[in-house]
Amino acid sequence: MTYKNYPMVSRVVFGRGSFNQLDEILAPNRKGRNAPFIFFVDDVFKGNHWLTSRIRLSYKDKIIFIPTLEEPKTSQIDKLVEDIILEFSELPSGIIGIGGGTVMDIAKAVALMLTNKGESKDYQGWDLIKQPAIYHVGVPTISGTGAEVSRTTILTGPERKLGINSDFTPFDQVILDPELTKDVPKNQWFFTGMDCYVHCVESLNGTYLNTFSQSYGEKALQLCNEIFLENNLSTEESQDKLMMASWHGGMSIAYSQVGVAHALSYGLGYLLGVKHGIGNCIVFDHLEKYYPEGVAVFKEMKAKHDIELPKGICADLEDYQFETMIDVALSLEPLWENAIGKNWKTIITRQELLELYKKM
Ligand code: NAD
Ligand code: ZN
Question: What pTM does this model have?
Fold first, then answer.
């Protein structure tokens, strides 16, 4: 038995207001006047001086605002990389992603593709990246995905929705400033927060579970229960705890895997463009067979926060579209193996997945 030797984020700072240290954290990593820092910032912060005034631009540094209506695409990554190469005479000193999972994944992918030849679609999978990325920094402004800590960046390509999973993907530096999440709208707070909750349930109930994953998963689950079920947390406590729950949830799946909800949610994302957080919620709501306890508590959380999930999103789909979603879901073999076991192919049928999708 060989155990996997995982990389982790090398440096992390945590604290309300720690975003003010951005400039001093970046300064020692500047490679020269012609090697800019490039800041990818969620375009929800356009015109938000409270945040952008703390990004100090020197020499050729640049802010690029990123729309987050859609999840990252391989073509979008290739275009961003090409633009950077055409605009600057040298490779950037670093890429800084400030936003949710969408912007952080874009930052990771661009940092990787600046040093690896070809198109990003060719690197979707496990351990296909050969060259280290350039210095990259993640600053979450919404909590739950664990993208700040993971060794993947999830991209939709021409053929699949799949991450670039590699030892070079994790950030070199993460800044965890829970205050940055203060203006997240309530529904989005719930959907992205539930991504973390689902990571915990899928990790803790999977066959890949080991003590490493379990210790992180249990802590994250406990934090989620406090945040989403208890009444006595202050807003600040709740923000702080969700940021750490996201981190621990991400650490938990780093050494295990996600499961049925993520597999089916990827199908919805690929075919219909349903975003990760809300997609997980739509799917998870129907998974009592696989995760009875987790789904019961999820329904409690949903009721407590008056969350209405969209219904009937698969109502008008054609047979071939269901087949596409089922193909995408089933192609994620490690997720099924974790959820069901090595013999999953003898247990999970296309018919069963079809019936699940038809309920959504
Ligand atoms: P997101 O990044 O798409 O952001 C969701 C919404 O919240 C956007 O409209 C954004 O503008 C808004 N928002 C973010 N911060 C805000 C703030 N402080 N104030 C107001 N609005 C704010 O959503 P997400 O759920 O964080 O990320 C989803 C993405 O993450 C998907 O693309 C998914 O594939 C990816 N993901 C990656 C990993 C990984 O390990 N790499 C894990 C899970 C999910
Ligand atoms: Zn997830």
Answer: 0.97
